[in-house]
Amino acid sequence: MRRLLFATLLFPVAAAAQDHSMHDMPAQPAPAPQEAPVDHSMHDMPAQPAPAPQEAAMDHSMHDMAAMPGMGANAVGGSGSALLPAAEGAMRGFHATTTGNWMLMAHGVLTGVYTDQGGPRGDDMAVVQSMAMLSASRPIAEYARIEFRAMLSLEPAMGRRGYPNLFATGETANGRPLVDRQHPHDLFMELSARADVDIAPGTSLFLYGGPVAEPALGPSAFMHRRSARYLPLSPIGHHWFDSTHITYGVVTAGAKTDAFQFEGSAFKGREPDEARWNIDTPRLDSWSVRATWTPSPHWTAQISHGRLKEPEVQHPGEDEARTTASLHYARGGLSAMLGFSAKNRLPGDTLTAWVGEANWDLSRHHSLFGRIENVANDELFPDHADPLHDRLFRITRFEAGYAHRIPLGKAAELALGGSLAAYAKPAALDAAYGKAPISGTLFARLALGQ
User: Fold this and answer.
1) What is the tens place of the pLDDT at every residue in 133-170?
2) Residue 164 near residue 158, CB atoms below 8 Å
3) Helix, strand or coil for residue 82?
4) Which of 415, 413, 443 is nearest to 93 (CA)?
5) By the 8 A CB rule, do 140 and 170 touch?
6) SS3 sequence, 193-250?
7) Are the CB atoms for 162 and 178 separated by under 8 Å?
8) Alpha-carbon span 164 to 180, nearest angstrom
9) Three-state secondary-structure class, residue 339
């Protein structure tokens, strides 16, 4: 009963909760010399005294970030409250443990990209993609934990129109729909908090959210999936699967066991506006539910459904019912995902999309990766005077590439690589896109802790 009550009062009592962390256990005295056996086991080494408070020493190390609170043995945290197979390995980052039992973590990615998108509607451009993530977590009781997280990007500097990405659509720039382009991420990608309370062995409740967060809808966002680690451009099905990964206003409550997670969210349905440097007004006008199954450290499956209030500014008055399902696999150096999504415009048509992607680390220095997408899209011709306006076309995109990885000590990695993309499309699009457009992309990716 005490734990259930604690779960409902978690945030107000956090500051006053007693910390039963192992870090605060007194050091055990070493055995007397005459009794000490000749044993070099690590278990029998005398405990080191804690640093004096006045030293305020910080333990800096590079290692896997501990799984997010309550993840269990079979899963690690993806974006938001999404789960990924534990065999993918937790996110790596720079850690500092303070004397107050706070675990601080920093992670970042900076990618220089040059892409040449083929065909008459293609374009070429050099851009810099970026993401920096900071988190602070600690136990607040013997059976409760709390985490604060911030994620930032300087991509708004590339301009409102983002970068060329053939057959990608979604959002607007300067009042016009973006077509064959990917919009930049906002400066504030996440400003959130999460609290977990254990209510029974292997079972916990959690509360997650913030002014910028991700609701329980869809798989983990593409930039957080190991299967998409070296793919230089966003999926053209981004607005089917994970466009809600930057949402202004999210509250999620859930329950987690070793094998299952069930959660529900209230959030703002409208996608971010064109002003990428600020924080949009949060609102809770939409909802979603998600169930995730983690039967082993190698498999994760999720199914989710949400009702979004007017998500796209170019479709005023249209709500959306979105349903997604995905299966994730990881073993050794292989990470893969297969996903399906259906977005039903209310009123309007139901548009479906499929995605399959994989990354295979052949060795310490060599990786192969690829993605296949099939998307039904009716936004390729936004001009009302165009005879193809509002026509539905099903596009298949094939992309494959190679990355050469250069470890930079334990702290960072530089990856140099590139990819080629080809497309299958209806003949009615030949005049606009050419018969067989080919796109090529080169990248240099510097990652802190990954």
Assistant:
1) 999 999 998 899 999 999 999 999 999 999 999 999 99
2) no
3) coil
4) 413
5) no
6) EEEEEEEECCEEEEEEEEEEECCCCCCCCHHHCHHHCCCCCCCCCHHHHCHHHCECCE
7) yes
8) 6
9) strand
